[in-house]
């Protein structure tokens, strides 16, 4: 498996819009991306403006397809201007699973 973790911060007052856009891309991945093994989204309990995604893919090629696909492009078209600063992204091969 190959993973991607992203940390995003919404601009003040735009938390609900960013959340809705993340839920859309997650639904798209579930319905349209068979090589996306998991797409998890959390919202910080300490700061509602902070969201974290943890995404699992069959391999790096599947991750690349996801990142270049309609779901991801739709998210950034809808929510890109609502993000406060750059998205922190960490990718790599999964080394442990439970």
TrEMBL record:
Name of one Pfam family that matches: ABM
Superkingdom classification of source: Bacteria
Record's keyword annotation contains Oxidoreductase: yes
Positions of the ABM domain: 2-91
Entry keyword set: Monooxygenase, Oxidoreductase
Record's keyword annotation contains Oxidoreductase: yes
Transmembrane annotation, as ranges: none
GO molecular function annotation: monooxygenase activity
Protein name per the record: Quinol monooxygenase YgiN
Annotated organism of origin: Lutimaribacter saemankumensis
